[in-house]
Structures are given as C-alpha cells and as structure tokens.
Design brief:
Elements: E1 4-9, H1 15-25, E2 28-33, E3 36-41, H2 43-52, E4 58-67, H3 71-80, E5 92-100, H4 107-126, E6 131-132, E7 139-146, E8 149-155, H5 177-186, E9 194-197, H6 204-214, H7 235-242, E10 254-258, H8 261-273, E11 280-284, E12 297-301, H9 311-328, E13 332-338, H10 341-346, E14 353-359, E15 362-370, H11 376-386
Parallel strand pairs: 5-6, 5-7, 9-10, 9-12, 10-11, 12-13
Antiparallel strand pairs: 1-3, 1-4, 2-3, 4-8, 7-8, 13-15, 14-15
The structure holds S-adenosylmethionine.
Length: 387
C-alpha cells in the first residue's frame, strides 16, 4: 500500500502525548507541530489512527500544498487538483477552513474560492457538478491557509473524533473527551493504580480512564468515519481493524462520585451507554467527606472553575479540597485542572508539576500534587534509598 503524509489535529498541550500514541501505533517520521502531529503511513494506518488515537480530534490527508500570491491564485491552484480522484459525481462535499492570512480576512471567502474551483472543474469536464452538503457530506475538505502557505486536505474523520459515540447526556460543563483522555495520559496512568474522579459530573474522565485501562479503542462506539464514503474505501481492511481483539484485563478500581444527584444520573447513563457499568463504581457523595480506598491511587478531577460561584466560595471549596487531600489521600497522586488561579492557590499544596492546557477557550493549569505517606522528608529519603 502506498504511504502518504497524515496530519492528526489536537488541542494545545497534547501534541507530545499524541505523538507518543502515533509512534506506538506504528506511524513513521512523526513530527510535532502546533496543535497537530504529522506522520507517514498507508491507508491502514489512516484507518487505525481514526480508530485508536485517544488524543486526536481529526485525521487529515493532505492532497495539495502550495503558496498563494493573491486570492485568484488559490482558485487557480485548487482547480489543478484532480478532484475526480477524491469525489465522485453524485456525491456531496463540504469545506471547512482555518485561515490566518491578510489575503482572506473573511475565512469563508477562502472556502468559497476552493468550492468554486471544484465545481467549475467538474462542470468543464462533465457538464455536471457535485452538490454541497454542509451537514452530512460524503467528502469533507479542509482548507488551511497560514500567511501565503495553503494546504488542502481530505478530512478522513468526518465528525470530530471527540464525538466517541457513547455520550447520551451532559451536565453544565462537560470535558471534551479528547482533553479528558489527554489529561489521563499526561499523568502516565494506564490502569496500574486505582483511579478516582470525586467531582465526576457526566463521567467523561471515568469513561476515558476505563477505556485506557481496558485497552478499548475510542473509535469502538462510533457509527461512522469520513473515509467510509470515499471512493477508495476498503471495507474489508476497516472491518479487520474494528474486529480486532483489543480488550485487556485490568484489576484497578475506577471510582466516580459527585455531589449532584442529577450529574451522577447523567454519568450513569453515559457509563451504561459505553457498556462500562461493571467497570466503574459510581455514587452520590460530597468530595469533602469522601474517604478513598487505601493507597496507592490517582485522583484526576475537574472541579467547578467558579464562573457561577461567588469568589469567596471558590476559594473555600479549593481550600477544603486541599485539606481533604492532605488528610485522607496519603500515598495518592492528585491532578486538578482549573482556570481559577485563585482557587488553585487556595489548595495549599505545592504542585510537583504544572501543565498549561485549554478547556475550550479557558486557559487552565493542570497541576499534580504528590500526597506523601509520612512526611515529605521521609518520602525523599525513601525515594533516594530506592535508587
Ligand atoms: C466542571 S464539573 C465536572 C465536569 C466533568 N468533568 C464532566 O466531564 O462532565 C464540576 C463538578 O463538580 C461537582 N461538585 C461541586 N462541588 C462538589 C463537591 N463538594 N463534591 C463533589 N462534587 C462536587 C459539580 O456537581 C459538577 O458536576
């Protein structure tokens, strides 16, 4: 099978973890870029990337890369592409674009130029044209224009890969599934220790943790991928990937709780939809009175950021979280993501690591607290003796 360049898009801060996933999958010449990772592979690798990568939002297949000097240049270059290789008459297409260029202050205008080029090319060659369907197209085309550089790609994913297919409900502030998986993988956890999200909301971190611990690919629940409507779709090849035996045994406990009865009900429904009811323990519980199973274990959580709370309440909440971690979670590692710097300061524990991430448009800090058994000094001495 021929090899070609593939680009996996992700969130800022997750590029290196995505590169690690791609290398493990067998991607070649893996290069970290801004909010993306590029690599080389064949058709099978592109299918596998869509099915297996937990931290990718989209898998793109670049088909043309060129410099544009002016607006008409974009049309001329786009018209040279043999579109009938990628799009059959009678099929529909849609365009989406990422544009940062003085030539195209209106992002839509760049998409329009490419659309005109595709339609005109078909008309000139056949007298007919494929239709545009922004909602449910057979082929999605991605226009990326940065300054003068333009890359046109086929979007092999279709809907964003964060739409795993298991979510049936959401609370007020659900984490994006790709961000949740990235947060877990950034800690190095793969199911070795017990996992707790004591403010689990709709259960995103719990479900993504269970998928990781059990080796279940995130694409297992999806009903479709973009490449399935491409002219060169290889159904047998993709069926082999879908029917692989990926599940592994995992003995760690995955425990979730939330103070809100409504949120726990939503989490329960999502967990059931992902067929993980037997894997995740779920309860209504205030984090501030929660006693965890004995160490070792990991807490990964996404507390309220305080947009809907009074400023003093957020400081009190985070201070109480810090106290509870200190008092009851000795031997655990706790990771908290928040956009509330006042809240994080009030935790009152020295972070061992800080990672910058975005939750949607909110700049967040993702912090690791090591909760030593005994004093910190004793723990350092023990660690030194172990080396
Ligand atoms: C930002 S949301 C978590 C969203 C979740 N990560 C998701 O993907 O759906 C914060 C959650 O903290 C819960 N919460 C607030 N105070 C709590 C407390 N004292 N104990 C337990 N949960 C609490 C809220 O009910 C809410 O569901």
């Amino acid at each position: 099978m021929s090899r070609f360049k593939i680009v996996a898009k992700t969130f800022a801060g997750l590029e290196h973890i995505l590169a690690t996933e791609i290398k493990a999958l067998g991607g070649e010449s893996v290069t970290v870029e801004r909010r993306a990772v590029s690599f080389f592979g064949d058709q099978e690798m592109m299918y596998k990337a869509n099915f297996h990568l937990r931290t990718a939002l989209k898998i793109l297949k670049p088909i043309a890369e060129f410099d544009v000097e002016n607006r008409d240049d974009l049309y001329d270059h786009a018209k040279k592409i043999p579109w009938d290789k990628y799009l059959a008459l009678g099929k529909s297409f849609a365009l989406d674009s990422t544009v940062q260029s003085e030539m195209f202050l209106n992002t839509m205008y760049a998409s329009l130029k490419v659309k005109d080029a595709i339609v005109d090319k078909f008309r000139e060659q056949t007298g007919k044209r494929p239709s545009v369907d922004p909602e449910n197209p057979d082929v999605r085309i991605n226009v990326y224009l940065m300054g003068n550089r333009c890359i046109l790609s086929l979007d092999s994913s279709g809907e964003s890969l964060h739409k795993r297919g298991y979510r049936v409900g959401q609370g007020d502030a659900p984490l994006n599934e790709v961000l949740a998986a990235g947060m877990i993988l950034l800690t190095g956890w793969h199911g070795e220790r017990d996992f707790i999200d004591p403010m689990c909301g709709s259960g995103t971190l719990l479900i993504e943790a269970a998928l990781i611990a059990k080796g279940i690919p995130p694409g297992m629940y999806r009903t479709s991928f973009g490449f399935e409507t491409w002219p060169d779709f290889n159904e047998d090849l993709f069926a082999d990937i879908c029917n692989g035996d990926y599940e592994k045994e995992s003995s760690c406990k995955i425990i979730g709780s939330d103070i809100s009865i409504k949120d726990v009900a939503i989490a329960r429904a999502n967990i059931k939809s992902a067929s993980l009811t037997k894997v995740i323990d779920l309860d209504v519980q205030d984090f501030l009175t929660l006693t965890p199973p004995s160490a070792p274990g990991i807490v990964i959580t996404n507390p309220p950021y305080g947009e809907r709370m009074k400023p003093h309440s957020i400081i009190e909440l985070y201070a109480a979280i810090g106290d509870n971690l200190k008092n009851k979670f000795a031997g655990y590692e706790a990771w908290i993501i928040s956009s509330s710097m006042d809240g994080l300061k009030s935790v009152g524990l020295k972070p061992a690591k800080k990672i910058d991430l975005f939750n949607g448009a909110l700049a967040c800090s993702y912090r690791c607290y090591e909760l030593f058994q005994g004093s910190h000094k004793e723990a350092v001495i023990i660690k030194k003796k172990l080396v």
